[in-house]
């Protein structure tokens, strides 16, 4: 079990190659400023990227109220982005997740997606395995910049 850094940061995004991820119709790369670029491919499914604390590692977020993702839309079209945190699961039909945060980003806009940790049925914030960022149907591939993943009290 791991805890966030003293400043609330969950992951160091400056080295994407060192991150444990699950990429679905997406790719990640360095953005040159300490964050990462997430490239969402065109797909009839839900393109996404999940971040993990490590193999078989969970975060204890029971002392926090939310996870916040600071993101920027560097493109020319608005983009709707969703995110949730999840407890460990072996089958998607049995996953236990937090509430879902969502934000529509205007072109060039930076916003924070807030994911609440309380209130979701059967979700345990002391056993967080992953953070998933995803999008719905879109007309063309696009990129979003992820600047930070932090917890707040």
Describe the fold and architecture:
With 153 residues, this protein is mainly beta. Helices cover 0% and strands 41% of the residues. The chain is built from no helices and ten strands. The strands form two sheets. The chain has a five-stranded antiparallel β-sheet, with no helix packed on it. A hairpin with a 5-residue loop joins strand 2 and strand 3. The protein starts with 19 loop residues before the first strand and ends with a strand.
Low-confidence stretches: none
Listing every helix as H and every strand as E from the N terminus to the C terminus, the arrangement reads EEEEEEEEEE
Tell me the radius of gyration: 15 Å
Mean pLDDT: 88
Structural class: mainly beta
Q: Notable features of this structure?
A:
single chain, 153 residues, mainly beta
Short description, anyone?
This protein is mainly β and 153 residues long. It has strands spanning 20-24, 26-30, 36-40, 48-52, 66-72, 79-86, 101-105, 110-116, 130-134, 142-152. The strands form 2 sheets. The chain has a 5-stranded antiparallel β-sheet, with no helix packed on it.
Layout: helices, strands, pairs:
Elements: E1 20-24, E2 26-30, E3 36-40, E4 48-52, E5 66-72, E6 79-86, E7 101-105, E8 110-116, E9 130-134, E10 142-152
Antiparallel strand pairs: 1-4, 2-3, 3-10, 4-9, 5-8, 5-10, 6-7, 6-9
